[in-house]
Design brief:
Mean pLDDT: 85
Radius of gyration: 23 Å
Distance between the termini: 30 Å
Shape: globular
Number of strands: 28
Strand order of the largest sheet: 23-24-25-22-21-28
Largest sheet: 6 strands, mixed
Helix content: 25-40%
Structural class: alpha/beta
Number of helices: 14
Strand content: 15-25%
Low-confidence stretches: 414-420, 476-501
Length: 501
């Protein structure tokens, strides 16, 4: 590296959750004044996973901000909102904005995320190239605001004379979250999923059946093995002959890495921007990529915690320290009212002994894949009472006794009768930020938890457990620094999310 670390100009392209985490890491290492963030959106980096909570009405849009704008200014970070980067000029080491201004860099980080896929539905795009006003994507805060405005304009909240319906295209994690958010607002929802069961990328057909039954109890009709083919004045036509009358069509059917800048700069792109263990482009040591747009070991991820782990590694690398990204075991967590789902690893692909307990009537299905005594994958639907202990065993690759895997699938009530087991201090509660139960108990309030540990600021799935730990901790209890350090998980390479980073 030609420039001293104290003088290097670091430019981050993107203003999502991965970029925000990287900035925090750079600030912690004294590199804030050298950092420029070029964010395309007009909002400060925010928690994208909680967008469905805004749609549901349980969170204010402003509450999603990961850091206030002043936080960046106070630490010398040059945060530029509404700044679209159109080119990277590797020969002059500058990035070019839409207004043709150029920003020089010594190291540039691509944290451009992913873009939603547009399914091939005729009529979605009109003859003039505009989107049919009934159709909405759902990936950004602006998407969420447009959807809420559309609901108001159509009178779907307050006017009982008008139809109150929405069709969600896609039965993955995001599709279920959006469906539940709209249903909570009183909108009649239907889901169209092209595969043979819900969450097909995460759970097997048995768990998918339980989920479909649960959705039906919550008032949502699910059409499986069906694809939307055409949007007409009458509604959304499916390839099975059905036409669904609807006022809204929300597209949640996946996305792809946003790698157009890398392609224009002639960097290697497969599905994502190909990077090495230091998150560097394999073509240029001054260009890095993290988050949804990056491809490491032929793998891309749509989850927050791998992006955050990458951000931590890259912050070390940019500070001149030795660090390497080795990948993640992912736990996907569904964030939706009245739906509890957690998936460890890839239960569809992992091999091993299957430990399984199901009660379709109650709406529960719990499965672990165990190999050599270790949990290598699993899926929990409808009962997450012991998810903390299961996640800890999965993260640490704990060797279980002969009957322990089965015992972990049995629900456990706490001594206090709250239905939540009493977690030991070293049990991981927030895997997004790698925070243990002991660190939560050492905090004074929810705000203290957020500020000092970053728990609840990722997927939000740990929020109920965090509140329970704060409510039940001994009065005035605190842990000293050595106790906090000892209570941290040993691996730290685990992720728990609802959707994408």
């Amino acid at each position: 590296m030609s420039e001293p670390m104290s003088e290097r100009k670091i430019v981050i392209v993107g203003g999502g959750m991965a970029a925000a985490r990287l900035v925090e890491g750079l600030v912690a290492r004294g590199l804030g004044p050298q950092t420029t963030v070029l964010a395309e959106e007009q909002h400060v980096p925010y928690n994208r996973i909680l967008l469905s909570a805004v749609l549901e009405g349980t969170h204010r849009p402003g509450a999603l901000a990961l850091r206030e704008k002043q936080w960046y200014a106070d630490r010398g970070v040059d945060l530029r909102l509404d700044s679209l980067v159109v080119d990277i000029h590797r020969d002059t080491r500058t990035v070019e904005l839409a207004d043709r201004t150029r920003v020089p860099y010594d190291a540039v980080v691509l944290a451009t995320g992913a873009i939603p896929s547009l399914p091939p539905i005729r009529g979605v795009v009109r003859m003039d190239g505009s989107m049919d006003p009934r159709v909405q994507a759902f990936r950004s805060l602006d998407d969420c605001a447009r959807l809420l405005t559309l609901l108001d304009e159509q009178g779907l909240r307050d006017n009982p004379r008008l139809p109150r319906s929405a069709v969600i295209v896609g039965g993955g994690l995001l599709g279920l979250q959006v469906s539940r958010a709209l249903a909570v607002r009183g909108i009649e929802t239907e889901i169209v999923e092209g595969r043979d069961h819900l969450l097909s990328s995460q759970v097997d057909a048995s768990a998918g059946k339980v989920l479909k039954r649960s959705m039906a109890k919550l008032g949502t009709q699910v059409y499986l093995g069906a694809r939307a083919t055409r949007l007409t004045d009458e509604g959304l036509q499916l390839d099975n002959g059905y036409t669904l009358e609807t006022d809204l069509v929300v597209l949640t059917a996946g996305g792809r890495p946003r790698a157009n800048l890398a392609r224009r700069a002639e960097l290697t792109v497969n599905r994502g921007i190909v990077v090495d263990d230091q998150l560097r482009s394999v073509d240029d040591p001054d260009v890095y990529a993290i988050g949804d747009c990056a491809e490491h070991n032929a793998t891309t991820t749509g989850f927050v915690s791998p992006a955050w782990e990458q951000a931590g590694v890259l912050a070390d690398v940019l500070a001149g320290n030795q660090a390497a990204y080795q990948g993640h075991r992912v736990v996907a967590r569904l964030r939706a009212t009245d739906l509890d789902v957690c998936v460890l690893g890839e239960p569809q692909n992992e091999t091993g002994e299957i430990v399984e307990i199901a009660n379709p009537i109650k709406g529960t299905h719990r499965k672990l894949v165990v190999r050599d005594g270790r949990i290598v994958a699993g899926a929990l639907v409808g009962d997450l009472s012991r998810v903390g202990l299961i996640t800890q065993a999965f993260d640490r690759q704990t060797v279980l006794g002969e009957h322990e895997a089965g015992q972990l699938l049995l629900p456990e009530a706490s001594a206090s009768g709250s239905g939540i087991p009493q977690l030991p201090d070293d049990a991981e509660v927030c895997a997004c930020a790698g925070v243990s139960a002991g660190r939560i108990r050492a905090c004074r309030s929810l705000e203290d938890v957020r500020d000092t540990t970053r728990a609840t600021t990722g997927c939000g799935g740990c929020a109920p457990a965090v509140r329970q730990l704060l409510a039940t901790r001994p009065s005035g209890s605190q842990l000293n620094a050595s106790q906090i350090s000892a209570s941290q998980p040993s691996n730290g390479q685990l992720s728990v999310e609802g959707t994408t980073s």
